[in-house]
Amino acid sequence: MPEHSADISMSQSAPDTGLKRAVSPSNLNTDSAGAKPEQKRPKTQQGRPHRPRRLRKADADETVLDAIELLLRETWLNGRSATDCPGIPAAFGWSSGDQDAEAAYSRSPPIPAKLAGASEAECTFDVYVHEMTERGVSIAARETPEQLRELVSQGQRPWFFVVPFTLKGEQARIRSVRHEWGYTQSDLLEVTGKSPLRIEAPCAYFGRCSGCQLQHVGYNHQLEFKRQVVERAFAHANPLFGKLPVLSVSQSPLPYGYRTKLTPHFDLRKNTPIDNVPIGFNIAGQRRVLDIEDCMIGTDVVRRGFAQARKDAHAKMASYKRGATLLVRETNVPGEGVGTSVADTPAAELVKEYTLDPKSWVTDTVGDLKFRYPASSFFQNNASILQAFTGYVREELHKWSGQLAANDGSDGVLKTLIDAYCGSGLFGIACHQDFEKVLGIEISNESISCAGDNAKMNGATNTDFLLGDAARLFEKVDSDPSSTAVIIDPPRKGSNPDFLDQLIAYGPRVIVYIACGVPAQARDINHMYSRGAISVDGHTATVDSKPTAVYRIAAIQPFDLFPQTYHVENIVTLVRED
């Protein structure tokens, strides 16, 4: 463990680098060099009239707006000795509830930007990085931490910049590029004052490629950052949730070389020579493609496939009209002389290969289990952690089945497992041995077919997978909720209120909520709290009618399935209070 704190979103201030810069004024009608605001520039640098882009709150990144508000509140609390205000203001920069004042401020950026017609010199600023958002980009301002504290203590706010590839406490030179509601998207030009947590990124493309956001941070610090992301998401959803302990992030066995799927792409633009078309991933903050010859987070097999996919695409580039997205996916196949089919070959004897054909079928292994599915469909892309990931879910269910049965002396309380949003059957099949019956449901006919075939291939004869909408799942369930556990693993946007209300009304003994979108997960659990179905330290919401079941949040366990990126998976265990 490095000697510095692992807290990268609350890290130490950068050392004094002697950077000389004009102090940003509290009056934000001009920039630090006295440049006039963008709205008074009638023409672009080339002399063409500039039509200002209308800024809308609905188009802004909600995670950035949330991070800004949290930063303002924390800054006010840290500097409250400088104010006589008895309580934290409900808003900064305008009166609470004054939507006209909020709109007037948020739609009127006080600084120039490249895409608003300003010159390079007008768009260059020296800033201080004050916070890092859950998406791995940072919130910066021209004000130092001290100046920010003084400004915020007066109930005001500066204009903020969103800057990639930086850490809290750093100083940076940036280019303002595009205005959004209440902030400006920026490019990083130079880090002028480095955080002690910064390391040299091993990838030559880092800082330009949009694929990774955290290679400039040591892996232990990445894990702590992701734990804080989960912690903050729950605190933001409900202040009571801020009291809940979030366990240390379960790390990936492979911090690099773990991805079993890559989707490079290319665009055909006018005047681009056919033999010089870039193939790779988007440039950070842009819609243009960066030419990438190799990707370090892909497995060795996928990296070989990546090189072949680029070679094939270049060879037939003249046949494309608009560009394309390529698929490189790892699969497991029988080795020479081992077996004739995946079903007949033990998982340990399969060998890794790649496929470039989206219509082909691929096989993933999770311990002794095998899962087949179309190459173009969804499956977790870090095989190195999947056994631990599914194993944790199984262990949680087994543990609570035993603990809840302790009083009556039985072998276990939980007899039936319902796997909502079951996909190809990953969790239901991985946990089937501990249940008398497993019922999976999925809206995709293709996924249900795969789940049934995978259950048969793995000898999971106690499983049944049904086609249907998870929102109407419990119409098909006849098991006793007191002996039933439910796994929910919805898409990134989370579940929906109708399903959650049905889940509460059914009242299973244990719920395991698996999420790739942690803010949506926290929102969904807060919805359950608002229905009186979640208890935190004995506190429940006041509701007109008592719900069928009330749950306590027994564990919050994050997993790092995507090292070097901001993504984090999270598993929450809810146990019914009887």
Structure report:
- This protein has 578 residues and is of the alpha/beta class.
- Helices cover 23% and strands 21% of the residues.
- The chain is built from 10 helices and 22 strands.
- The chain has an 8-stranded mixed β-sheet with strand order 17-16-15-18-19-22-21-20, sandwiched between helices.
- A hairpin with a 5-residue loop joins β1 (124-132) and β2.
- α1 crosses α3 (145-153).
- The longest helix is centred in the C-terminal third of the chain and has 23 residues, at 383-405.
- The chain is globular.
List the helices and strands and how they pair.
Elements: H1 62-78, H2 99-106, E1 124-132, E2 138-141, H3 145-153, E3 160-163, E4 171-180, E5 183-193, H4 219-237, E6 261-262, E7 265-267, E8 280-282, E9 289-291, H5 300-315, E10 323-325, E11 328-334, E12 350-355, E13 361-366, E14 369-374, H6 383-405, E15 416-420, H7 426-431, E16 437-442, H8 445-457, E17 463-467, E18 484-488, H9 497-506, E19 510-515, H10 518-530, E20 534-535, E21 551-559, E22 569-576
Parallel strand pairs: 3-5, 15-16, 15-18, 16-17, 18-19, 20-21
Antiparallel strand pairs: 1-2, 1-4, 2-3, 4-5, 6-11, 7-10, 8-9, 11-12, 13-14, 19-22, 21-22
